[in-house]
Amino acid sequence: MRQNKHKIVNDPVWGFIDLNSGLLFDLIEHPYFQRLRRIRQLGLTYLVYPGANHTRFEHSIGSMYLVRTALQVLREKGVEITDEEAEGVTISVLLHDLGHGPFSHALEESIVKGISHEEISLLFMKELNEEFDGRLELAIQIFLDQYPKHFLHLLVSSQLDMDRLDFLKRDSFYCGVSEGVVSSDRIIKMLDVRHDQLVVEAKGIYSVEKFLVARRMMYWQVYLHKTVVSAERTLVNLLQRASDLVVAGRGVSSSAAFACFLKGEVTAADFKSPERATRRRALDSFSWLDDSDILSSIKDWITYPDLVLSELAARIVNRKLMKIKISPHPFGESQLGEIKAKVGAIQGIAKGDADYFISIGEMTNKAYQPDEEAILILYKNGKLKDIRDASDINLEGLTKTVRKHFVCYPAKISQGN
Fold first, then answer.
1. Could you tell me which residues come within 8 angstroms of residue 237 by beta carbon, excluding any fewer than 6 positions away?
2. In the chain, what is the straight-line distance between the N-terminal and C-terminal CA atoms, in Å?
3. String of DSSP letters for 118-166
4. DSSP class of residue 40?
5. Helix boundaries (H) for 162-275
6. 223: Cβ–Cβ under 8 A, 6 or more apart, which residues?
7. What residues have CB less than 8 Å from 96, skipping those under 6 apart?
């Protein structure tokens, strides 16, 4: 009997999304992709915005929907796109986030050091290509920008790609903020192709301006919200402490999937191994790891007989987050030394363990990258202009990197600091 693969997803952001492709349906059903249901899109942002519990699964489906909408618009304008190319770019954007680890960007360098989520996504795609008898070859070429039609890659990865159009609107929807609400439909309707470049018709210039401003505002309002940064740095330090305890020979409870990463049994070298069997083992181990492994372990660690591990775990579970101080300038050694001394004086914390309660870093925000491929505005006379030159408002502020320095430490020592 023939299996019915004509499915419909009811997405709260874009409405009903049709999944009427056999290969697309099979990829979505695959365990590698289903895992994204258990990966939060915005990490620990739910500790600030309670509604931010949406997942990478929803975002990937939404990005796929926008790519298909854009392809239809471009075809109606006479851009030649074959059915095979349409399927390839759709698969490429559908699978672009497969490599995200638990809590997405929050633990990018904590689970496996030395390899990015983009690299792991590509490895997953190549493994799926083997499983599906080479049917993802075109999608991989587009993902890597190795296919002759460059504009297809720009739909997946650029300064105005379908990934960004989805996550800005989706994240603002679930967080309940208005900063990320952009005219995605209008931007897509205004898309066209010139000289193998994705361009926006001049009628859509104001929507592009709003998109750039929204991107900048969402970073400060949501992605780099100071409390989110504090929570994520606490989580990073917590996992570092757990890993250090394991290396020291102390047993730390965790799921089997999580244990092999805490012990360092799976490394970046395994993912990059020339041996397919080694890569496959690393990918399979990674594919079993999700937010639930981390959260269940953290709950157990609250009662663990190590003050640092139990204290940091309790802070995450009970939302007792670190104080965060932000400055436009780096903190001086004297300031940091004073904070470290006060942390070390907290009862029960050994002097050498103070670093687990202190995080130092910087946040950067740049909405438009002038050194990357430009967002091009198309005029009726065929002339193309960079959005910076086409706009009648000053966008220079959006091209500059705004840098803020921060230090996180226990709130109980904040008095007088």
1. 312, 356, 357, 359
2. 71
3. HHHHHHHHHHHHHHTTTTTHHHHHHHTT-SS-HHHHHHHSSTT-HHHHH
4. B
5. 162-175, 184-189, 205-218, 226-247, 256-262, 268-271
6. 42, 45, 171
7. 60, 63, 121, 143, 156, 157, 163
Residue 1: per-residue pLDDT: 42
The number of angstroms, rounded, from the C-alpha of 53 to the middle of its chain's C-alpha atoms is 14
191 contacts 378 by C-beta, under 8 angstroms: no
DSSP H or E run through 93: helix 83-94
* b (16+ CB within 10 A) / e for 291-309: bebbeebbeebbebebebb
* Domains, the chain, ordered by start: 7-95+136-224+373-392 (1.10.3210.10)
| Nearest by Cα to 60 from 83, 28, 84 | 28
In the block, which residue shows the tokens 């003050």?
307
pLDDT the model gives residue 126: 97
Rounded Cα–Cα distance for residues 166 and 93 (Å):
11
What is the DSSP secondary structure assignment for residue 344, as one 8-state letter? H
Q: Which amino acid is at 31?
A: P
The angle, 0 to 180 degrees and rounded to 10, between the axes of the packed helices 291-301 and 226-247 is: 70
On whether the pTM is more than 0.90, the answer is yes
Strands 15-19 and 7-11, by their bridges, are antiparallel
Per 3-state DSSP, what percentage of the chain is helix, strand, and coil (rounded to 5)?
55, 10, 35
**Angle, helices 117-131/276-287, rounded to nearest 10 degrees:** 110
63: its two tokens: 């990005």
Question: What is the reported pLDDT for 347?
Answer: 65
Using the 8-state DSSP alphabet, how is residue 202 labeled?
G
Q: In a 3-state reduction of DSSP, which class is residue 404?
A: strand
Residue 414 has pLDDT above 50, yes or no: no
Instruction: Fill in the amino acid letter for 126.
Output: K
Residues 6+ apart with CB under 8 A from 214: 168, 172, 179, 180, 181, 182
- 199, 42 Cβ separation under 8 angstroms: no
Question: Which amino acid does the sequence have at 172?
Answer: S
Per-residue model confidence (pLDDT) at position 109: 80
Task: Using only the alpha carbons of the chain, give its radius of gyration.
Answer: 23
HEC string for 350-397: CHHHHHHHCEEEEEEECCCCCCCCCCEEECCCCCEEEHHHHCCCCCHH
Is the pLDDT at 134 greater than 60? The verdict is yes
